[in-house]
Design brief:
The complex is a heterotetramer of chains A (109), B (117), C (324) and D (93).
Chain A lengths: L1 H28 L3 H27 L3 H31 L4 H4 L8
Chain B lengths: L6 H19 L3 H23 L20 H32 L4 H9 L1
Helix pairs in contact in B: 1-2, 2-3
Chain C lengths: L1 H21 L3 H21 L3 H25 L11 H19 L11 H4 L2 H11 L5 H9 L1 H22 L10 H5 L6 H23 L8 H19 L1 H7 L2 H24 L14 H34 L2
Helix pairs in contact in C: 1-2, 2-3, 3-11, 3-14, 7-8, 7-14, 8-13, 8-14, 10-11, 11-12, 11-14, 13-14
Classes of the chains: A mainly alpha (109), B mainly alpha (117), C mainly alpha (324), D mainly alpha (93).
Chain lengths: 109, 117, 324, 93
């Protein structure tokens, strides 16, 4: 049983590390603000779930697990919210998506 | 490895001087304060680096095990210094805001010009 | 391996610092300062300073950004003039950096347990804390008891800085011509952040209290807790507008908090004198000296927390009120 | 295995930092700060276990709670800036 949990947690951690990395590459390589935001925010949540889940399996039932669950819950609440807030702020300020305008310079004054 | 052990101190020196450069060379008062915060962070880094003991852990006794602890004293000094740092930075920002209200500018040259008039 | 992680983070920190100095948009510089704070906090954690990392997290992640942005809103976002004596400053700074780096070759090796810093007073603190105070967190023990004078001084510095900001910015004239209700509405029209923020505020407050009272057993204490609680109330002010926040905690109450903290700290010290001990000697506060020490630390940490909360909130409101 | 996750997180932090330095718009930089914040939470939780001191998860918890405030402060800054600008424009007309 413990070997199974161990393997599972390593798998989760590896996948988590990968998705975090993919998010980083996406945030760097994507062509405009909204696609970058998409790459960053989706993998942020997925990576957090996988990595923290992997650690939780390692920690077993303890105070640490409860703290990890709290961290995960708060991350899942705040991270998409800040992405949403940021995207709406950018849209209100007039930054247009790439496909529409094909431009991404400084936010209009 | 011997040289790697000094890397933290080098970063301290470089960071300190980057902050100092912003203070001397940038005419914008807010930028000067940002430089000053960097300068502060460099000093914090120096203190904490000095307190680290190889193979040690944070000076909070765990329930079992761990006999080597890092030095608590620099941590105490820096812990208070961070909060003091933000309050003094806020005081500096307050002065900058007042300067802007009186002179209409936060660029050193322009303030000096107005003063000389 | 951990050493390599530290080196990597420090390199990122230097890159960030250079970018901060080079950018001529102050808003960008403030954002990059936020990144620098995250990196340096991670570094503190790697260097075994959990308490310091928590302080940097509490202060750097929220409050410092909020204050700088508040100041930018009142001044300007762009640097206009280029520096005139760039070459000269660069030469001076580079020379100084080289001298400092040259000096580091005389420094003891990183992490050397035999270095002079580690061999004088620190082992005594580590050894005597269980005996005299009997709490696991040595940092809190040194902060509250062994070096209580230091901390009292720092609390007064924070207090003075807060008073200074209020003198500079408080009770000022209105600088803006905007309709007041527009300014005061905060982020009330942003539904999603508002709902999530409202859910979070009680948890942040609860976490702040946990950090305050768990400071003797884990990383934490008055300085961190004060900053976290102030951050929670600043979040409320951002979401609901200045006015609502001020009606929850009016300016008079904030002034009271600012003054109460140092008073409480000083009173604990004086109580020690009255009970026949020295100033800030907590052993006499209870019949059992160890219990007395613990009680004293609890009280002065509360004093520190109250001061820091009051001062940071007072500063925030002073900046925010100026924008009206 | 913790090491692998730590390295992945650190590399991502470097990439996000690059995005913050390159910009180009201010929103990209805010996005990068936000991303770095989440990555720091992950890094701190992993390192707490790497050090065998899971009681230090408080730090990651602090960041998970407080990072949000920075983004909201930025949002409020943009909002009040837009207000000020429209007022200035109104005054000029």
């Amino acid at each position: 049983m413990s070997a199974l949990l161990d393997t599972l947690s390593w798998v989760l951690l590896t996948l988590g590390g990968l998705s975090v990395l993919v998010g980083g590459i996406g945030a760097l390589r994507m062509p405009d603000l909204y696609t970058r935001m998409h790459a960053a925010s989706v993998t942020d949540s997925l990576g957090a779930i996988l990595v923290l889940g992997g650690i939780m399996l390692q920690a077993g039932w303890s105070l640490a697990t409860i703290k990890l669950i709290a961290i995960l819950l708060f991350l899942l609440l705040t991270s998409p919210t800040s992405s949403n807030a940021l995207a709406s702020a950018a849209l209100l300020a007039g930054t247009r998506p790439f496909a529409e305008a094909g431009q991404d310079e400084e936010a209009p004054k | 490895m011997e040289l790697l052990g000094l890397y933290n101190y080098w970063v301290f020196a470089v960071l300190l001087m980057i902050g100092f450069y912003a203070v001397v060379a940038k005419p914008n008062l807010v930028k000067k304060l940002i430089g000053l915060s960097l300068f502060q962070s460099a000093v914090f880094l120096l203190y904490i680096t000095m307190g680290k003991v190889e193979g040690g852990t944070a000076p909070i006794f765990p329930e079992a095990g761990a006999a080597v602890f890092s030095n608590p004293l620099p941590q105490v000094l820096i812990l208070t210094a961070i909060v003091v740092g933000i309050s003094t930075t806020a005081l500096g920002l307050g002065i900058v805001v007042r300067v802007k209200e009186e002179y209409g500018s936060i660029e050193e040259h322009e303030i000096q010009e107005i003063d000389e008039r | 391996m951990i050493v390599i992680f530290g080196i990597f983070l420090l390199t990122l920190l230097v890159i960030t610092a250079i970018a901060i100095v080079r950018s001529d948009n102050l808003f960008v510089a403030v954002m990059l300062m936020g990144i620098a704070s995250l990196l340096i906090a991670a570094n503190f954690f790697l260097l075994d300073a959990a308490d310091v990392a928590l302080t940097e997290a509490a202060v750097g992640a929220g409050i410092s950004t909020v204050l700088f942005l508040g100041a930018l809103a009142l001044t300007s976002e762009r640097e206009r003039a280029k520096s005139s004596n760039r070459l000269l400053s660069f030469i001076v700074v580079a020379a100084a950096a080289l001298i400092l780096i040259y000096a580091t070759f005389d420094k003891p090796r990183f992490g050397d347990p035999e270095a002079p810093v580690q061999t004088h007073v620190a082992p005594w603190y580590l050894e005597k804390t269980p005996e005299y105070i009997d709490i696991p967190n040595v940092v809190t023990a040194v902060l509250g008891s062994f070096r209580g004078y230091d901390t009292l001084g720092e609390v007064f510095v924070v207090f003075t800085a807060g008073i200074g900001v209020l003198f500079l910015l408080g009770g000022g004239k209105a600088t803006s011509t905007l309709p007041e209700e527009k300014i005061n509405e905060g982020l009330r029209h942003h539904l999603i952040p508002r709902v999530v923020g409202r859910i979070l505020i009680p948890f942040i407050l609860l976490f702040g209290l946990y950090v305050q009272f768990h400071g003797e057993y884990g990383p934490g204490g008055g300085f961190q807790a004060g900053a976290i609680i102030a951050a929670a109330i600043i979040l409320f002010a951002l979401l609901e507008g200045e006015k609502r926040a001020l009606s929850v905690l009016p300016e008079r109450v904030l002034l009271g908090l600012m003054a109460c903290g140092p008073l409480l700290y000083g009173a604990v010290g004086l109580a020690g004198v009255l009970l026949g001990g020295n100033f800030l000697d907590y052993s006499v506060l209870s019949s059992d000296p160890v219990k007395g020490q613990q009680l004293g630390i609890l009280l002065i940490e509360a004093g520190v927390g109250i001061t820091v909360t009051g001062v940071l909130l007072g500063i925030f409101h002073a900046f925010a009120a100026r924008g009206r | 295995m913790y090491y692998a996750v730590t390295i992945a997180t650190l590399v991502t932090m470097a990439l996000a930092l690059l995005r913050a330095v390159l910009g180009p718009s201010v929103y990209d930089r805010v996005l990068a700060v936000n991303m770095l914040g989440t990555k720091t939470v992950l890094l701190l939780s992993v390192i707490a276990f790497l050090y065998g001191r899971p009681d230090f998860l408080d730090l990651a918890l602090a960041y998970a709670l407080i990072n949000f405030i920075g983004v909201l402060a930025v949002l409020e800054f943009f909002r009040s800036r837009a207000l000020r600008r429209s007022a200035e424009r109104g005054a000029r007309q």
